[in-house]
Amino acid sequence: MNPVDAADPVGRHSSTASSAIAAPAASRLSEQKPTRYRWVVMGLIFLIWAIACADRANFGIALPYMKKEYGISNTEAGLIVSLFSFAYGLVQIPVGLMYKRLSAKTTGMLFSVFMLLTSLFTGLMGTTSSVLLLQLYRVGLGLSEGPLGIGCTNVINRWFPPEEKGTATGLWIAASKLGPLIVPTVCIIVIQLWGWREIFYVFAVPGIFLAILWFFLVTNSPAENRFCNEAERRYITQELSAGAASAGTVAGQGAQVAPMPWLDGINRTRRVPRLETLRQVFTSWNVIGVALGYGCMIGISNIFMSWIPTYLVTVKGFASVKMGFLASAPFIGAVAGNMLGGVISDRLLGGRRKPMMLLGALGTAVMTLMLVDAPDSVLYLGAMLMLSGLMLGIGFAGYSAYPMGLATKSTYPTAFGIVNSLGQIGGACAPLAVGMLLDRYDWSSVFLYMVGTSLLCLVLLLSVVEPITVRKAGDEA
User: I need a labelling partner for 125 at 20 to 30 A (CA). Which of 140, 143, 172, 199 fits?
Assistant: First the structure.
């Protein structure tokens, strides 16, 4: 007998037995079909974000009625609109840090709480009796809704494999435009039946129901979810071997992508290490530059959301039905652009985020220039507003997915918090700027302002790199 066998006959047989047991288990796991529950989670994210964005967008439809009832100027109206974005932006970085430090169970519960608070402040908007209360409730809505965006993207980052993150993020961004898309039609019906105050009561209800569903159905990661099987968890995490883990990946993709020399030259594609510490995140120009560009584009989106209904009624003289259709036009285009941009980025560009962002900034500048001194034609205005929304939306998914390619899963909430914070604060300036411009000039100056901010975004995007992240074995995707 072999001396080793003689010394440990039980251990040898135990090892053999364990291998015999493990083999069928591994075989069963390989044959197990993934549950695809991540798409159920994505469906809830889509609905929740659509309702949350509708809660902020309905203010633009009610604004002409509020101005008449309270006798407020354009500048005061712009300030009320902007207060939401200022409050929303200010909470982004603290919330990003909170998501990094708190347990997954706690952050999941807080998400439902913030959704309930969003519905509460939406409903309170209908009870206002003064401009001061309007301002306070808008601030409350911004503080409540602010954590939802980071919560949604954090769940996307944990629930989707690298090659699906752009598509999932595109769907999330599309939801942000679907809310404003349905708002004008619903609001006009509610105003005709009851009045402008009832708008806010109607939109407060769905969020309460969805917050309860989220609490019982969604966890912060698939590992904690009883509806997600092991096959799907392994598909999502895509554990890399040591050899594969050391390979460069573009924008967080899980595999080496085909080189595109001409595009990578324009994109300034570079190898960069992942941002593993908060210091690295806060000092990264790639994060800050994209955040500032995001602020330019959010500002334009906020103008479409809050001021275009007023433009269509007061300048073009359209009745409520035409106004509702045209006010929806930018968001019809934006929904298509958001989904298209995410899919192109993932499937055709190998996870490169900058091309769609650059195209969006340039295209938005061209389309908003076409709105200067636009004729009183429903067909022309509808086409230009829809194309403006398409160009605006086609790059939006990139701003959320871009930090996924730079940061680890641990530091991503903070990285996205910076992008969203500077983005929302920058975007908050736009409605106020429009009010000030209208009190001094006319709508041509507003559209030229939108052209200028689009071009500024283009310059900022050209200053950042398209990251090829370099992983170490065992790093998080």
Answer: 172
What number is the average pLDDT over the span 25-37?
A: 67
- How far apart, in Å, are the Cα atoms of 143 and each of 92, 105, 118, 347? 9, 21, 8, 36
* Tokens of residue 424, six digits: 């929302």
Are 37 and 287 a contacting pair, CB within 8 Å?
A: no
Whose CA is closest to 360, among 394, 329, 328?
394
Phi then psi for residue 160, to 5 deg, are -125, 140
CB-based burial of residue 161 (10 Å sphere; 0-12 exposed, 13-18 middle, 19+ buried)? middle
Task: Supply the pLDDT for residue 104.
Answer: 59
Picking from 149, 169, 140, 162, the residue whose alpha carbon sits closest to that of residue 417 is 149
Query: Which range has the worst mean pLDDT, 259-268, 382-391, 465-474?
Result: 465-474
Query: Does this model's pTM top 0.85?
Result: no
- Among 166, 152, 206, 158, smallest CA distance to 182 is for 206
> Using one digit for the tens of pLDDT, what is the confidence trace for 131-160?
899 899 999 999 999 888 888 888 888 888
Q: Above 80 in pLDDT, residue 353?
A: yes
CA distance 259 to 470: 16
For residue 270, the cross-strand partners are 467
Instruction: Please give the structure tokens belonging to residue 202.
Output: 């109607």
| Residue 309 · residue 329 · CB < 8 Å | no
Whole-number Å distance between alpha carbons of 219 and 216: 8
Residue from 344, 345, 343, 348 nearest 258 by CA: 348
Among 153, 435, 411, which Cα is nearest to 294's?
A: 153
Cα–Cα nearest to 413, from 39, 158, 217: 158
Buried b (16+ CB within 10 A) or exposed e, 254-267: beebeebeeebeeb
**Is residue 71 left, alpha or beta, with left meaning phi > 0 and alpha meaning psi from -120 to 50?**
left
Q: Let me know: does 142 contact 302? Beta carbons within 8 Å.
A: no
Tokens 């493990």 -> residue: 22
Buried b (16+ CB within 10 A) or exposed e, 377-399: eeeebbebbbbbbbbbbbbbbbb
Mean pLDDT of the chain: 81
- The backbone torsions φ and ψ at residue 351, rounded to the nearest 5 degrees and listed phi first, read 85, 5
Beta-bridge partners for 287: none
Beta strands per DSSP E along 181-241:
none
CA distance 394 to 415: 22
And the tokens for 238? 């895509």
Nearest to 411 by CA among 239, 275, 288: 275
CA atoms within 13 A on the CB side of 169: 32
